């Protein structure tokens, strides 16, 4: 077998040209801790950012219930561009791509479900 054919088999997941299964990245503990820390530092003034407790600001949704409103992944673009809301009390902040991934990963771990 030519060397380049072997490389092609490896890239395609083995003999027969079958593509390898997609690998889903699961945030590691440090990523989840970063996500939790970002939520705490930037959002806990108004929102409940953990698995329990009430939001300090009446009407501010608890982060554990966000998936009942919409998929948490939809926050990704807003976090990259800077969240702007209809009320002046919410601070605007922009996260870096690795911070966004950590934040979204953390949010996914605390969701209570549909």
TrEMBL record:
Keyword Metal-binding: yes
Database matches in InterPro entries: Cyt_c-like_dom (IPR009056), Cyt_c-like_dom_sf (IPR036909)
Keywords per UniProt: Heme, Iron, Metal-binding
One function term, GO molecular function aspect: electron transfer activity
Transmembrane segments: none
High-level lineage: Bacteria, Pseudomonadati, Pseudomonadota, Alphaproteobacteria, Hyphomicrobiales
Signal sequence range: none
Residue ranges annotated for the Cytochrome c domain, each copy included: 30-111
Name of this protein: C-type cytochrome
Residue segments, region Disordered: 1-29
Organism, scientific name: Stappia sediminis
């Amino acid at each position: 077998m030519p060397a380049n054919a072997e490389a092609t088999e490896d890239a395609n997941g083995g003999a027969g040209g079958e593509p390898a299964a997609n690998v889903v990245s699961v945030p590691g503990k440090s990523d989840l801790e970063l996500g939790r820390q970002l939520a705490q530092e930037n959002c806990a003034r108004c929102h409940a950012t953990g698995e329990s407790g009430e939001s300090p600001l009446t009407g501010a949704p608890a982060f554990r219930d966000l998936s009942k409103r919409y998929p948490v992944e939809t926050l990704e673009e807003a976090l990259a561009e800077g969240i702007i809301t209809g009320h002046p009390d919410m601070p605007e902040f922009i996260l870096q791509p690795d911070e966004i991934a950590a934040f979204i990963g953390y949010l996914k771990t605390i969701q209570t479900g549909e």
